[in-house]
Specification:
Length: 251
C-alpha cells in the first residue's frame, strides 16, 4: 500500500525548507543568533538532503509494516491533506494515535501538524512522547528543538540538542544544531568549540562549514572565515551560500 503518511510528513517538514520552523531554519541554515538579520538565501546542502532522504526511506519501511486498518486511516489522512483540510487530517491522526498509542511516528506526525499550526507547546509535548517511544530517532530531537526555538525557549532547545549529541556525538547535523543554539544564546566560545567538532564529524557538510565561517567572520577572523568557506566548497563544489560569502570577503 502507498505510504501516504510518509508523503504527508514530507509535505509538512521533510525536504521542503518552507515547512521548517522559522527560527530554527535561521539557526540551522544561516548560523546566526536569533536576533541577527538573515543575509543569504536558505539552502540545505547535500549532506542534509541525504540525511533527510535516509530518514524518509526508513519511515517508508516502517509504514509498510503497519496493519491494513492503519493503512486505511493513513490513506484518509493523505486525502484530507490533499483537500487542504489539516484539521481533518489532525482528527484522523489523533484517532490513529489512540489506536496505536505506542507508535512514535504517529506522535511525531501529530507534533509536526501542531507545529505547522503554530501550536508549539503542544508540538513539544508530542515530540517528547515520540522521543520516549523511540529515543534513537535523531530527527525527533531536531523537531522538538525547532518547536522550542519557535517558542523562543532557546535554553531548552539547547538542552534538547545536547541530549541528541550525547546520544550521537559524531553526527554533524546534531552538532550543528547545538552550535547554532549556543551562538543564538551568545555563548560564543562554546559555539566555536562545537562547530569545530561538527566540521570533523560525519557527514561532511558544506552547510556546517559555512555556518562556522559566518561566526568567524562576525568575530573579525576573516582569514579563518575564508578557510571555512573554501573548505565548504571542497566538500560541495558550487554550494551557493559558501560561494556568496567567499565572494563578499574583502581582499
Amino acid at each position: 500500500m502507498t505510504a501516504t503518511l510518509l508523503r504527508a510528513c514530507r509535505s509538512l517538514s521533510g525536504l521542503r525548507l518552507a515547512a521548517i520552523p522559522g527560527l530554527l531554519a535561521v539557526l540551522l541554515l544561516v548560523g546566526q543568533p536569533a536576533h541577527a538579520q538573515q543575509a543569504q538565501p536558505l539552502e540545505f546542502d547535500n549532506a542534509y538532503k541525504a540525511e533527510l532522504a535516509s530518514e524518509s526511506a526508513a519511515l517508508r519501511t516502517r509504514i509498510q509494516q503497519w496493519p491494513a486498518p492503519l493503512q486505511d486511516m493513513n490513506q484518509q489522512i493523505s486525502a484530507a491533506l490533499r483537500a487542504n483540510d489539516p484539521a481533518q487530517a489532525q482528527r484522523i491522526a489523533e484517532a490513529l494515535s489512540q489506536r496505536e498509542p505506542g507508535n512514535a511516528d504517529i506522535k511525531n506526525f501529530l507534533g509536526k501538524l501542531q507545529s505547522i499550526n503554530g501550536q508549539q507547546a503542544a508540538a513539544v509535548k508530542l515530540f517528547d512522547e515520540a522521543i520516549t517511544l523511540a529515543p534513537d530517532n535523531r530527527w525527533f530531537y531536531v523537531n522538538k528543538a525547532g518547536a522550542q526555538a519557535e517558542l523562543r525557549d532557546l535554553p531548552n532547545a539547547l538542552a534538547t540538542a545536547q541530549a541528541l549529541t550525547a546520544r550521537y556525538p559524531q553526527w554533524s547535523i546534531g552538532l550543528n544544531l547545538q552550535a547554532a543554539l549556543l551562538d543564538g544564546l551568545d555563548r560564543i566560545p562554546e559555539a566555536l568549540k562545537v562547530y569545530d567538532q561538527a566540521v570533523h564529524a560525519t557527514p561532511p557538510s558544506a552547510q556546517i562549514l559555512t555556518n562556522q565561517g559566518l561566526l568567524l567572520r562576525r568575530l573579525g577572523r576573516q582569514a579563518d572565515a575564508r578557510a571555512s568557506y573554501e573548505a565548504a566548497l571542497r566538500v560541495q563544489p558550487g554550494y551557493s551560500r559558501a560561494q556568496a560569502e567567499l565572494a563578499s570577503l574583502p581582499r
